[in-house]
Specification:
This protein has about 230 residues and is an alpha+beta fold. The chain contains eight helices and nine strands.
Length: about 230
């Protein structure tokens, strides 16, 4: 399983670092924090199949699909996505697929990489990380058995609600209104406030293609706030 992820607004962030060393430190800290969040899955000293590569505004994370590593990768990716929002004001877009891939310290190649990139660049469109339908269905089929036999997943109450179906039929990693257990850097209200701020900031862009992304985010935040009131 592989996730291809794009950091939104990365070029503008990098441009600002040329005149502001603090912004450079902030950007590198954000990338380092996401890397560390993924590898927290190995905190118990258990070997995993995770691989992580970052180049420019792109991040590739992979794990063996038919193992608990794939569930752990998704869980840590959600936590990392939320931490980037609340700690750094950074949003991600991406695609998650299953397929053949070579991913190690020297090589990153395979059909799964091509397909994950296609999902991110052509279909995700908004600040969301989408998952291919077949892979989502496989997770649904295997979820009950995996959770039953692995205590590290049983302990995560909201694990079976990682993804939410969007209006266009795609399932995306729900970092906007996740299960309560995933709000580790801020409260749910603070998290929605941070997302709302990012949406309003993005809507001030002069580029329509950028504003469309943040219109989606604003709509999702408004729906989440409305849900909390009911």
């Amino acid at each position: 399983m592989v996730a291809f992820i794009d950091i939104l607004g990365f070029s503008a962030m990098v441009e600002k670092t040329s005149t502001d060393e603090k912004k450079l430190q902030r950007l590198t800290s954000a990338l380092d924090d996401l890397h560390n969040k993924i590898w927290e899955w190995e905190a118990d000293g258990v070997y995993s199949s995770f691989a992580f590569t970052q180049f420019s505004d792109s991040i590739v994370i992979s794990a063996l699909a038919q193992s608990t590593d794939s569930f752990g990768m998704l869980m840590q990716l959600l936590l990392g996505t939320m931490d980037l929002v609340d700690g750094y004001g950074i949003l991600l877009r991406g695609g998650i697929v299953r397929g053949q891939l070579i991913h190690d310290n020297t090589m990153l190649v395979g059909p799964a990489m091509v397909e994950a990139y296609r999902l991110e660049s052509k279909l995700a469109k908004y600040p969301r990380i989408i998952i291919e339908e077949e892979l989502k269905r496989q997770f649904d089929d295997n979820m009950e058995d995996y959770i039953k036999h692995h205590t590290n997943l049983v302990e995560v109450q909201g694990f079976n609600r990682l993804f939410k179906k969007d209006d266009d039929g795609w399932y995306y990693l729900d970092y906007i209104q996740p299960a309560e257990e995933y709000n580790n850097e801020s409260t749910p209200d603070e998290h929605l406030k941070n997302l709302g701020y990012l949406a309003e900031k993005g809507l001030k862009s002069d580029e329509e293609k950028v504003r469309i992304k943040y219109e989606w985010l604003k709509k999702k935040v408004a729906a989440a706030i409305n849900d909390k009131k009911q």
